[in-house]
Amino acid sequence: MAQxxxxxxxxxxxxxxxxxxxxxxxxxxxxxxxxxWRVIGINDGFDGLIWTERTMPLTVESIAGILPRGGTIxxxxxxxNPFHYNVIEDGQKVTHDYSLRVLENARKLGIDAVIxxxxxxxxxxxxxxxxxxxxxxxxxxxxxxxxxxxxxxxxFDTALHVATDAIDRLHTTAESHGRVMVIEVMGRDxxxxxxxxxxxxxxxxxxxxxxxxxxxxxxxxxxxRAATGKKFSLVVVAEGVKLPARxxxxxxxxxxxxxxxxxxIGDAIRALLKQEVRVTVLGHIQRGGSPSPFDxxxxxxxxxxxxxxxxxxxxGRMVCLHAGEIESVTLDEAVGETxxxxxxxxxxxxxxxxxxxxxxx
Length: 361
Ligand code: F6P
Description:
35% helix; single chain; alpha/beta; four-stranded parallel beta sheet; 10 helices; binds 6-O-phosphono-beta-D-fructofuranose; seven-stranded mixed beta sheet
């Protein structure tokens, strides 16, 4: 029989993502209006379970108006793993295991279950706290859409809108000046944002981490366009692409932070084509601002279903989307596997069919 629940807590960890507040709102309203539970917000990942003053009561009134708001009212961090918590003591970096303290504080706060909203790292922490006895359920989160356990994560659609809008804007100025525009989008090791926004924005070239490319092949495509009178081109680059070993002059590509990979690519295209090239790194603009209606709805469904998992006593599970329905998988199944673009998949084939080049042969 499911244990009696009186109080639940909500924590979100890792990078923020449009729709986090919608999950919080959905869960708080379902917990209070549907079950009469008390809800505690944990600030900054799991930090609020290490230092309990970093918690806040969440009520229907206190969360009013957060549905369309970007970011998270709870704050977040991607440096707060309670199992390996780094602090500076006497000028030295020291790593603590605070996991037992988290369990003890949860007990002191009267928390019967925790909703953990996050990506792979956060859900791994949640799974491990669960194994120690903390009743947890997970909600997947990332703009990268690279979690294998769910068809889609909230935040991806919003990031896609931002990236597509940026490509549209670069399109008009590229056309006016006859320039090559290189635009770098996020996605970590997966090319989903680049692939989808590239198709939606009518890119000429899309460079993905999943498909090795050469600058020569990219430039061939741009030359072909120029030969048909198209003096401008749009090259969408996923931040996680792996640069070829050498640039077209034979020199080694200089080591750059991944967020600047498009600058190296822009330089190499400029050198080979002798054409004006401009580079835009979209960066965190893709993560900020109001979530799209799709993301608000998905986030709300996830938040509500997380509460229902708790009500049914189904701990150690993460909600997910499967064939349009909200289901759940174990946290073990949820973590560890990154969902990458299939180079032979239908989305890549569609792109190729409309003339988009991936810089491969
Ligand atoms: O995982 C989401 C994401 O935005 C990635 O696309 C990106 O590589 C990373 O987080 C950026 O992280 P940070 O906010 O720490 O710079």
